Amino acid sequence: xxxxxxxxxxxxxxxxxxxxxxxxxxxxxxxxxxxxxxxxxxxxxxxxxxxxxxxxxxxxxxxxxxxxxxxxxxxxxxxxxxxxxxxxxxxxxxxxxxxxxxxxxxxxxx
Length: 110
Hints:
The protein is 48% helix and 10% strand. The protein is built from 5 helices and 3 strands. The termini are far apart.
């Protein structure tokens, strides 16, 4: 389910997945299939980790990478979940082809 909630977003962020919803910044983004696919990849990741463990792991990885890079945005860009989603967002068949726990290979890859 895609919901529009324009006051939910920080700076340049325009989409967010919170199981089972995809929140977007404005109605026009419903037509952005790459963005929607990116968020659907996150929904699949969340489901695999029983939702709550996804958020725990996501925040923990962001904290570790923030310390590593001394840069919270660079940390965000290098979270394994984000790397998987960004790398595959243009492949609109990815969620149907994707193997379970595919984000793991993005943990150590540079």
